[in-house]
Amino acid sequence: MSLSVASSTTAAATKVSAQRKVRPKLALKRVLLYVSLWVAFVWSVFPFYWMIATSLRAKADIFRRPPSIVPQGITLQNYVDLLVSAHFWRFAMNSLILTLSVTLISVFISVTAGYAMARHRFKGSVMLPLFMLYGQMFPPVLLLIPFYVQLRYLGWLDSLYGLIPVYLSYMLPLCVWLMRGFFSQVPHSLEDAARMDGCTRWQAFWKVILPMAQPGIVAVATWVMIHSWNEFLYASTFILSEKNRTLPLGLSKLIGQYTTDWGVLMAGGVVTAAPIVLVFFFLQKHLVAGVGGGAVKG
Amino acid sequence: MTIARAPRPLRLRPTWSSVFETGLGARVYPYLMVFPAVLLVLGVVVYPVLSGISWSFYDVTLRKLNSGSFTFVGFKNFERVFADPVFVRASINTLVWVILNVVAQLGLGLALALLLHRPVRGIGFFRSGILVPWVVPSVVAVLTWRWMYDPSVGIVNEMLVRLGIIDSYRPWLGDTATSLYAVTVESIWKGTPFVMLLLLAALQLVPRSILEAASMDGASGWRKLWYVILPQIRVSFAIAAVLTFILTVNNFNAIWLMTEGGPLNSSEILFTLAYKYGFQRFDLGLASAVATMLFVGLVIATTLYLKLMQAREAD
Amino acid sequence: MKMRRMRGLIAATLLAGLSAPALADNIVMWVNGPLASSPDAPIYAELKAFEAATGHTVEVQAVPHMEMERNLFVALSSGAGPDVMALDIAWVAGLADAGLLADITAQTAPIAAEYQPGPLASGRYDQKQYALPLYTNNVALFVNDRMLAEAGIKKAPSNWAEFRDAAVAMTNKDKQTYGVSFGGNRMGAFQLYSFIWQNGGEIVDEAGKVRVGEPAAEEAVDFLAKLYTQSRAMPDSVLTAGNWDEVHAPFIQERAGMVVTGDWALAAFTKGNPNLKFSVHPLPAGVKSATVIGGYDLAIKAGSKVEKPAFELLRWLTGSRSIALMQKYERLSATAAATSPEAIAALPKQLQPFMAQASSGRARPVVAQWTQIHSDVFANVWDAVIRGKPAKDAMAEANTAITGLLEKK
User: Fold this and answer.
1) B209 vs A297: CB contact, 8 Å cut-off?
2) Percent of chain A beyond pLDDT 70?
3) Are residues A56 and A91 in the same domain?
4) Fold of C2-137+294-361
5) Is the residue at A14 inside a domain?
6) In chain C, residues 304-343 whose CB comes closer than 8 Å to chain B
């Protein structure tokens, strides 16, 4: 947060002279800006709030009518029930390992491939990205059986590492594509300058281009992270044993055959979402920091 | 910033990466960089997709899968799909679903990105908050919305009644007239933040000097947006459009967990139809036929769009 | 003591009869999530006992109900899958038809009398037995005692006319109360079947003839739908309720005086509204009484390498021990012994009505296309009729559609 504030003050300073003449209009604009920010904020956060509120309600309060926006009494019973009944720590560890592996691999691969596609001309440099993208367009549900056959052949069923290639298939094409887009927006001049100064291609890429593409990398990494953390369909089909379950699988177990304990389910949702929300808050700062310095200014 | 002042290796000092500067190394370099990606895509994307497509020409049902011998049936699966009246309904719904989602997500995403790009006090707080929908596990998000739409205890009904927009609770997901739109609202809510993030990241890359120059010229807000900002983030916008398009067509959780395509197929899209064919009827031939059509449609639409973008870029 | 010895005896005979040299085999079993919801779930202790008695080992994998059918399909069709699987009784036919389940007709013939006929029939397809019932359930009428009394009605409805009158009497537009909460789509369709049978109607009869277009079936649909379309005695949730929670919600909130549901509702009601005063009654009878049977069966994968031990496991879990085991889950055993007056009396009070009406329970038609008939045809019929389509037309169309599905094969 501090960084964003810092950048806001510098930016404000540069604008000050131009803004002096139009003060009343500006004040109105500012009010409007904050009003719209709050509207967007409430719209985005409300369902999440509702999740949290439901998870804190006593069971009898959940069906109360009319629904009250603020729970009438707060209880942590749902969280206690949740954490006692299932191996949530185990699930969280599995999710963490899986998410980190998939994120690292896909960021590495998509950065190199995306850069090569954006900057170099080679056979297939035009068609390849498009071709990759096409792979993303087949409805994933129908890939269940081919994947199952492949994983079974490799003996990777019911294992976390078996899920890694499956997730990559689902993430990688978009990541490559995204990275290519980001690299193509980094001005050529920077790289040329670095090369003039005697950098090898690799050094120019590593020391100049990569830091520039940081917001893109962060965006891609977050995308992969969030989707691997929350992925459900493949995990639920390929993971069988309790010890290999991921958090979303733990969640789906809470949805009963007949009835569902909504309070506990929502508590599970909050517990599942909490780590990624926290990670995200951290990354969000970096997203700002990566560009806040104005590296692109020249 | 630091980059500009960092000491650099001298022009002639050789490092391991000098190999790629000339000759064979230079030619191999780009291939080497794309190689892992291509390898993975071949293994985990091309094969499954091809087998999925090929199934649409075979009679693949539960019985046949077990015996392991499929019979080639040509276009028969497609004929059967076309004969199903639900298919027409689902196609129209898919179109509505995609257009609404893509337009709204891109529009709102752009608006939010412009809003959040401003370096004002507390912007980090708003940015983080607005990204929350994207972070919430989709299964939980969908179930929460379903709960919020509930015709008897739904908070959506309660709030709309209190705001005086409706006078009594309504079954938003149960009315054939509103079910598709009710799900669309959830999907827009969930999808917009990512578009926003993409565009925000791109906005951050726009050199500040360009924006300042435009301001100096006294360009009005809209003109600045249209003539200065949008062209600068054009590539990201195109990417966001394509991604939103693909993700919307393949957004299964939202519809499946809220309405299962109902009531009376009023919110059926091609994807849910394919799922029903495949995993309720256990007729994968039929499901693959729908999936293949969807796939071809997506490929054509995306290619056309990208070609258009390229053509404009060339101008 | 006596019980224990008997169990030991059964185990011993099983051992002697089925796998003379007790080879230690590993059996992979998929059970539906709720039965193995936590590490101390009763099924684990039961399996320990089985392992101790037979020397085999059992590897349990809990699969949530929602994903079970799809996961079984994916796994079995790729040639993998568990040796023993728990199946919703509605899935048996589809899997048996595809040749994915082992035929256990020969082994089960001598012991058929030990099971309740309805649940046992749910595991029979094409005159062959493929599965044994793990537990059973059926639906009954839940009545809010206070609302019924306030509507001036003395006793819970026992026939259709009383049912309608009670529903109408408890409906009050100003107070926004309704007579009966009902499900939409597949939920509603499931609730519908009992009423069709009560009216003397059939869905698919023994001979395989589709009979949903006949007046008896059509009247039942019409009767229920009019409670919503004409009497407004059902809350609007009937249009959307796609899971039991949404069917139950109006009853829990005391906005609906009655609901048609099964034993799974008991815990949900107590949790959702501890002050709710309700009683459980057999479904109101039409021409005769009938209730739809649900529950889970156990089946063995065709070609399983451990078929014999797998059958021992089936017997173990579905046999006489299941009465005690299922009671721990507050569910109903499907053994014939469980319906004896003493066994019923030993059940928790609220479960007794369900077991008592088990004899009028009927399994849904065991045809391979059932899942599709249920979720494509009947769900749509119900959705259409409550939105104003004449029941006669809807059922006539359904008749054609189901006939078409059954012929296609």
Assistant:
1) yes
2) 87
3) no
4) D-Maltodextrin-Binding Protein; domain 2 (3.40.190)
5) no
6) none
Do A224 and A191 belong together in one domain?
yes
Among B247, C256, B143, residue whose Cα is nearest residue A264: B143
Residues A201 and A288 grouped into a single domain: yes
> Which of B3, B198, B298 comes nearest A211 by C-beta?
B3
- pTM of this structure: 0.85
Q: What pLDDT score was predicted for residue C144?
A: 95
C73 vs B: CB within 8 A: yes
Would you say residue A198 lies in a domain? Answer: yes
pLDDT at residue C253 greater than cutoff 70: yes
Which residue of C33, C74, C252 is in closest CB contact with A148?
A: C74
Q: State residue C306's pLDDT score.
A: 93
Q: Last residue of some domain: A27, A50, A75? A: A75
Based on the domain organization, do A101 and A183 belong to the same domain? yes
**Which tens digit of pLDDT belongs to each residue from C171-219?**
998 888 999 999 998 899 999 999 999 999 999 988 889 999 999 999 9
Q: Which residues of C touch A242 (CB under 8 A)?
A: 61-62
Count Cβ atoms below 10 Å from residue A143 Cβ, excluding itself.
24
pLDDT for the residue numbered A222: 82
Q: Which CATH superfamily is domain C138-292+366-408 in?
A: Periplasmic binding protein-like II (3.40.190.10)
Chain A hits for B288, CB-CB cut-off 8 Å, are 142
A157 SS3 class: coil
Does residue B270 carry a pLDDT above 90? Answer: yes
Which among A85, A145, A252 has the least Cβ separation from residue C37? A85
Please check whether residue A129 lies inside any domain of the structure: yes
Range of the domain at A143: 81-292
The b-or-e profile of B137-160 (16+ CB within 10 A means b, else e) is bbbbbbbbbbbbbbbbbbbbbbeb
**Contact call for C185 and B263, based on CB within 8 A:** yes
Lookup result for tokens 């590495």: A108
| Contact at CB, A145 and C78, closer than 8 angstroms | yes
A1 within a domain of the structure (yes/no): no
Q: What is the model's pLDDT at position A29? A: 83
pLDDT at residue A291, as a whole number: 39
Contact B263 C383 (CB under 8 A): yes
Shared domain check, A33 and A100: no
Burial of B297 by CB count in 10 Å (0-12 exposed, 13-18 middle, 19+ buried)? Answer: middle
Instruction: Report the domain count for chain A.
Output: 2
Tell me, what's the pLDDT at A289? 46
Closest C-alpha to A202, from B68, B15, C181: B15
Bridge partner residues of C256 (DSSP): C178
List, in order of start, the domains of chain B with CATH numbers: 19-46 (no CATH), 56-314 (1.10.3720.10)
Q: Tell if the CB–CB gap between B152 and C384 is shorter than 8 Å.
A: no
Q: Where along chain C do its domains lie?
A: 2-137+294-361, 138-292+366-408
Q: What is the reported pLDDT for C158?
A: 92
Segment A38-48 mean pLDDT: 93
pLDDT of res. A146: 85
Residues A160-196 pLDDT 10s:
889 999 999 888 888 888 888 878 777 777 777 777 7
Q: How far apart are CA B205 and CA B197, in angstroms?
A: 13
Q: What's the whole-number average pLDDT of chain C?
A: 89
Q: Between residues 218 and 277 of chain C, which touch chain B (CB distance below 8 Å)? A: 235-237, 239-240, 242, 246, 249-250, 253, 255
Q: Which chain A residue lies closest to C70 (C-alpha atoms)? A: A237
C51-83 per-position pLDDT tens digit = 999 999 999 988 888 888 888 888 887 778 899
Mean pLDDT of the C301-305 span: 91
Alpha-carbon torsion angle C89, C94, C98, C102, nearest 10? 10
Q: Identify which of C59, C244, C249 has the shortest CB distance to residue A258.
A: C244
- Cis peptide leading into C21, omega within 30 of 0? no
Task: Read off the tokens for A90.
Answer: 């185990």
In this prediction, residue C408 carries a pLDDT of: 66
In 3D, which of A149, A158, A116, A230 has the Cα closest to residue B44?
A149
- What is the ipTM metric for this complex? 0.83
Q: Is C94 on the interface with B (CB under 8 A)?
A: yes
Nearest CB neighbour to C67, from listed A62, A157, A252: A252
Same domain, A154 and A221: yes
